[in-house]
Amino acid sequence: MQTAPGASLSDAAPQPRQPRKGLLVVLTLVAVGVYLLDQLSKAVAVARLTAGDPVELVGDLLRLDLTRNSGAAFSLATGMTWVLTVVAIVVVVVVVRSARRLASLPWAIALGLLLGGALGNLTDRLLRDPGFGRGHVVDFIAYGHLFIGNVADIAIVAAAGLIVVLGLRGTNLDGSRPVAAAPAQTDDQPDD
């Protein structure tokens, strides 16, 4: 790799960006917005819907159908609510710790969605029946006969999709992108 006269190799290497407070504000606002929307929608669902009495919105494709989920998506890990509680706590800790390196708006949005969704479902697991750390998550948005979820689940899935796109684009948490190495020039190549 060649450098300009007076420049060092370290000048040519991409430097990670410093976290910006504005991005932490974005992450926080997205997380708080998702959390409040999730908790409010669950409160309305519990107050207005009756389990086993679905309300069709778009035929059988989209309906409101109140249920309590002790497991994860698709009712996986049913009966292992405490494990899911621990996983949610770990996700929250990882997002909060990762925020220190944050220097990318798309990552701020993705982590805000993930944090808000994780906190929304974690609140259910900590505070709802049958007890602390074993609470069942309120689900009420039914997608055909595939699965039933909530606003927190939508945020988590959106965050996962955004994180996949950022990963495929090579955008790091600090906003940097890997630089492709230039082909090495050898002395035995003819000059034009």
The helicity comes to: 40-55%
Q: Strand percentage, roughly?
A: 5-15%
Number of helices: 5
- What is the number of independent domains? 1
Summing up helix and strand content along with how strands pair, one would put the structural category as alpha+beta
- The residue ranges in which pLDDT falls below 50 over 5 or more consecutive positions are 8-16
Between the first and last Cα atoms, what is the distance in angstroms?
20 Å
What is the quaternary state of this protein? single chain
Mean pLDDT across all amino acids: 83
Give the overall shape.
elongated
Radius of gyration: 23 Å
**Order of SSEs, N→C?**
HHEEHHEEH
Count of β-strands: 4
Read across the widest sheet, the strand sequence of neighbours is 1-2-3-4
Largest sheet: 4 strands, antiparallel
Overview features:
192 residues, alpha+beta, four-stranded antiparallel sheet, 48% helix, elongated
Topology:
Elements: H1 9-12, H2 21-48, E1 55-58, E2 62-69, H3 81-98, H4 105-127, E3 137-143, E4 147-149, H5 151-169
Antiparallel strand pairs: 1-2, 2-3, 3-4
Pathway: Protein modification; lipoprotein biosynthesis (signal peptide cleavage)
Function: This protein specifically catalyzes the removal of signal peptides from prolipoproteins.
Active site: 139, 153
